[in-house]
Amino acid sequence: MTAPDVEATPQPLVDVDQERHARFRTSFEAVTDFGRRLLAARLAAAGVLPAPGAVAGREEILARLAVAPGYQRLGDALLDLLADAGLLRWQGDGLAVTGRVAEAAGFAEDDAVDAAAATLRREHPEAAGYVPLLVACQTQLVEVVRGDRPANEVLFPGGSADLVSAIYRDNVQLDFYNRLCAARVREHVRQFLRRYPRSYAHVMEVGAGTGGTSGPVLDALTDRTERLRYFYTDVGPAFLRLGRQRFGVDRPHVDFARYNVEGAPEDQGFEPGSMDVVLASNVLHATLRISAALRHCHALLKPGGILVVNEMTSRLDYNTLTFGLAEGWWRHAEDEPRVPASPLLDVAGWRAALGRAGFVDVRAHAVPGLDAADQVQTMFVATATGGGGASR
Fold first, then answer.
1. Deepest of 53, 72, 99, 346, by most Cβ within 10 A of its Cβ?
2. Which range has the worst mean pLDDT, 9-13, 238-242, 247-251, 291-295?
3. For the Methyltransferase type domain, which residue ranges apply (predicted)?
4. Which of helix, strand or coil describes residue 382?
């Protein structure tokens, strides 16, 4: 059965290969378990974990790790992750290693990691794209957490987005959600242009990043380009350059502009109440306050415009082991409710936050046929009310 607060996705608007998706979930768990063992091996080799038979307190272990400012939340999350996975165990108020750490000891050597990674990619092709980023992050995690190496040099080596982009290629789960976003955006644009035959539809994507969602959405709008303006925005100049390279050729209807969803639209050159669709895919969790970001999204929209939000709604160890290296992953305010050991909101949390920001008719969609406990991502569509107006 599906989650009670997640609606069945209309068919055949967007479908999913259930057998392939099941293989993906199995493969993704195998990749994640490899990452957990790799983490334990690297921390043990660095002298961070207690020796076999010894016990150390959480603060003592983190002190050995020498966690830099900005990474305290990640340090705590990593220890909880290892304990939940059975690589560490609580013994009184302290932590001890289990036999699984000794079994993973070989992963302290790069050659052993490379060989295991190659085998993993061969045996689990559905999640092969996740492996290179995981290996890069875990083999350099200690240096990043200590502040000796910037996280962006690991996630985007040489300014390249190849490691992150590899996740999006031929990925049955991400492809499903991207097509779902594209279908929802296309449908709203179609209805708007039919209702207002002399108008242009305005779509704004905030935090477009590497364009993983942008591509399917732009492709879905190909037959509407004569009456469409699409704003590809991000706070990072490197992402805007990437966007121009990928989507700027032969697409005069696409504009590229810097925009920070944490700031008011009117302060950044965007007219409040000017957009028909605002799209935010896997970006709003990375804000200091989701509540403020949602108010700014609402301010951008015309009355009756829609916000399409695509977000993880369950904590995944893979994300902690990779994107968790980015300081922005942990920058949320202390007083904002998030899923423990993550920057995420669950489905109920998103519904509540969208309602507080002035949205109505909030609809949540996830992979059809999955039990509630197995849903890890959700796409929300919410309608803006009242005048777009100023956001402050």
1. 346
2. 9-13
3. 204-307
4. strand
